Amino acid sequence: MKAKTKIQKEVVELSSTLLPFTSEEIAQAQKQYSRVYVGKSVAWCSACGHKWDSDLWNRRKKTETCPYCGAKGKVVKSSGKRVSEGKYYVTKITTVGDWQVLRTALCDRRVERESIFGPAEVRFSCDEVFQRWMRKETIDVVIGRGARYGMYYDLWNLETPWEVRKDHYRYEVEGYRIGKTTLLPELKRNGLKKVRDEISFREQIFKMLNEAKAEILAKAGQWALLKHMCSHHSDIIGKWDSIRIVCKHGYIVKDSSMWVDMVEFLRKCGKDIRNPHYICPVDLRKAHDDAMRADQRRRAKAEAERLRKTITDPKLQADYEARVGRFFGVMIAGKGIEIQPLKTIREVWEEGEAMHHCVFKMGYYKHDHTLLLSARRGDKRLETIELNTESWKVVQSRGLQNQRTKDHDKILDLLKANMNKLQRCVNA
Fold first, then answer.
1. Which sign, positive or negative, has the C-alpha torsion 271, 272, 274, 276?
2. Residue 383 per-residue DSSP state
3. Are 281 and 287 in contact (CB under 8 A)?
4. DSSP 178
5. Residue 167: count of CB within 10 angstroms of its CB
6. Residue 124 contacts residue 107 (beta carbons within 8 Å)
């Protein structure tokens, strides 16, 4: 779209002064996302296509450097691979005036390895597709080519004009960092001496320009927490009191997700999460597991208390009896099987625990027009029956772990033959 605001017009004008990527930067881009394909006795580089004698097939080496172009690539065992092709992104981080600029280009590479039929064939293109201009307390300005929207991130219309674009997830993609990285003085002052590749370029620059808490984390060397802040902002803000204590005591958090989870477990267990004894453990994994087990015990205790209140709640029991109490005197017996109603909520709970199904957990005792019965042979529970007292049909009859038992048909036949006993209770 056409630049409308003063800031957008400024960005368009400044963008026109930027020089294209240099030949050195393009050569660096070509070496990114490289692979070394390994056969039984030879290897070849996906960046330049050259091959050489190699014994990598029998070694457990994960990376290898091409002796011809110097590209360092991941070792991939593939004796029949002849062509390597694919698309990927590269990003150059630079400054223009008081603007921090992220320049992102789409690389398209197709390399055919050299063979007895001819030398290596390399086809490579590097097209800049968009720029993100960032400044303190200013909404980012995105300028670039038009995107062909779809499920893939590499669909760009390179014929469209270079102009201001609406911010969209397509314009948030980042790639391998190339070229010389330059940062605004404000970023260096705030603690970002160099860009961290393991953190989103856009997020870390935005946070360091606009968030005082990000500056505190950077100056304290808490890069794991800063990375976590870029993806889970609320986690860090919610634990800020603990983070201040951690920074004060010089404790460096190496695994942010584990540390944040540990602090949350401690909070739920009622521990003092501003006490360095708890939040600055020597063994983070052990402290995390201990806190997790403590939280599990807390939840189990809370669940037991909730259960105790439920099965002894006089109001729930009174409501249950009001709905189905008239059936409690019925006993159906035959063929060595006895069927009787579950008379209390405690009996419903005991049935669910013994049979390992959800008759209690799903609150069947609260349902209208529902009568719960237990079919047994002596002291052995066979199946739990849910009967609709409006249609007088069996909704379900479940045995241990919701399985159907060998007595299933006998139980249903016995209940059906004696259904009049239950129906008489309604008319009594």
1. negative
2. E
3. yes
4. -
5. 12
6. yes
Reported as a single tens digit per residue, the pLDDT across 41-92 is: 899 999 999 999 998 888 889 999 999 999 999 999 988 889 999 899 999 9
Tell the residue number behind the tokens 């984390």, with chain if given: 217
Cα(405)–Cα(411) distance, rounded to whole angstroms?
10
Distant-in-sequence, close-in-space partners of 68: CB < 8 Å, separation ≥ 6: 45, 48, 50, 52
Q: Note the pLDDT tens digit of each residue in 268-327.
A: 999 999 999 999 999 999 999 999 999 999 999 998 898 888 888 999 999 999 988 998
**Would you list the DSSP string of 195-226?**
--TTS-HHHHHHHHHH-HHHHHHHHTT-HHHH
Q: Which residues face 103 on adjacent strands?
A: 92, 131
Q: In the 8-state DSSP scheme, what is residue 362? A: T
Instruction: Give the integer Cα–Cα distance in Å for 202 and 140.
Output: 10
Number of H helices, E strands in the chain: 15, 18
Cα(8)–Cα(319) distance, integer angstroms: 68
Q: Which of 95, 78, 82, 76 is nearest to 40 (CA)?
A: 78
H/E stretch holding 85 reads strand 83-96
Query: At 297, phi and psi to the nearest 5?
Result: -65, -40
Closest of 353, 371, 381 to residue 415, by C-alpha? 371
d(CA 420, CA 320): 22
Helical H segments across 16-107, by residue range: 23-30
Tokens of 269: 């267990």
Question: Helical H runs in 269-393?
Answer: 276-279, 284-311, 314-324, 345-355
Burial pattern 54-91, b for ≥16 Cβ within 10 A else e, equals: bebeeeeeeebebeebebebebeeeeeeeebeebebbb
**Amino acid making up residue 227:** K
Q: CA-based Rg of the chain, rounded to a whole angstrom?
A: 34
Alpha carbon of 274 to those of 106, 223, 255, 262, 270: distances in Å? Answer: 47, 20, 19, 13, 12
Contacting residues for 422 by C-beta, under 8 A, at least 6 apart? 327, 330, 371, 387, 389, 392
The per-residue pLDDT of the chain, averaged, comes to: 91
